[in-house]
């Protein structure tokens, strides 16, 4: 059967993969080598130096392209390294429009690294796609969106934003880390670039740090490949192997993440001590209908605000959790809890955080694949 016709669950296992040419190994070998023998200067079998390409990384990149319905995949040392490569497509004087509740690491990279090189960044609410257009100028070259956003779980209409991008001849990049291609496929909705912190759901086991980009356009892919090789922020063969292994179980893990996420969100929404729960599966969630149309389910990421809570009370709750581990990151098989204001989004100035809803009392959960009854019991004890 043609790979293009494979269903997603089959693509996670077989997409872009072939038995190893040397000995028929079913899993791609870990080519733990920096360089490759050449028969004559420039005469090699496609690999000369592992910063430029490595067979294990190639296997991962082929898998990434397959599961995102793209033509080209690129793997990096981290999600931030992948974003860094995208911004390096731009020139001084160019402008980027991004969502106002973007991941703190992305904000830090944009504002503290690239802005001093003459690239301008605007951070706006993007829940109403039509309102984005007024911020697009002749200098705008990139629209950068997350959906669902981190940590407010806002939903952005990818198809509507892609129409704006085409109208104004700008690139659209979508951070698909929270949803994964199991839930939504941004390239099919009109995006030019899909980015992942593959550290999260794609790797799935909190044992690797990897980033990814997937595109359809060859010219764009060539530019990104050049930046990847020239800048050198590539992932190693062991990290490539671990991420590829994680992808092979992505579909079964995401089923449980979604199932548990729904149970936890419903429990919190009914809890008398919880003021607000942010999860796109609720019918009263802003842009819930858009989420229904562009996602196949609503994921395992949830944020909430306890009633009458402040910074100190939020800290007490996350410190009391036992099954939910207090830690950075998300998307692993284990459940994690975080306090965005002091952890993932601490690099964003407080006044900017609060404008987008990231208040000091906000708690973010990455719901894992444990038994949901145990997770609820853990939350019940911590919330009191």
Give a brief outline of the structure.
The protein has 384 residues and is α/β, with parallel strands linked by helices.
Question: What are the SSEs and their pairings?
Answer:
Blueprint: H1 8-14, H2 55-67, E1 72-76, H3 79-87, E2 95-99, H4 104-114, E3 120-124, E4 140-146, H5 158-167, E5 171-175, H6 180-183, E6 193-197, E7 211-215, H7 218-231, H8 237-247, H9 250-270, E8 274-278, H10 288-294, E9 301-306, H11 311-320, E10 325-326, E11 336-338, H12 350-355, E12 363-366, H13 372-383
Parallel strand pairs: 2-3, 2-4, 4-5, 5-6, 10-11
Antiparallel strand pairs: 1-7, 6-7, 8-9, 9-12, 11-12
Helix pairs in contact: 2-8, 3-4, 11-13
Q: Average pLDDT, to the nearest integer?
A: 96
Q: Please give the alpha-carbon distance between the first and last residues.
A: 54 Å
Low-confidence stretches: none
CATH class of the largest domain: Alpha Beta
Number of domains: 2
What's the gyration radius in Å? 21 Å
Query: N-to-C SSE series?
Result: HHEHEHEEHEHEEHHHEHEHEEHEH
CATH fold topology of the largest domain: Aspartate Aminotransferase, domain 2
DSSP helix fraction? 25-40%
Under the CATH scheme, the architecture of the largest domain is 3-Layer(aba) Sandwich
Strand content: 5-15%
The class by helix and strand makeup works out as alpha/beta
How many distinct helices? 13
In the sheet with the most strands, the strands line up as 1-7-6-5-4-2-3
Number of strand segments: 12
Quick one: biggest sheet? 7 strands, mixed
For the record, what is the CATH homologous superfamily label of the largest domain?
Type I PLP-dependent aspartate aminotransferase-like (Major domain)
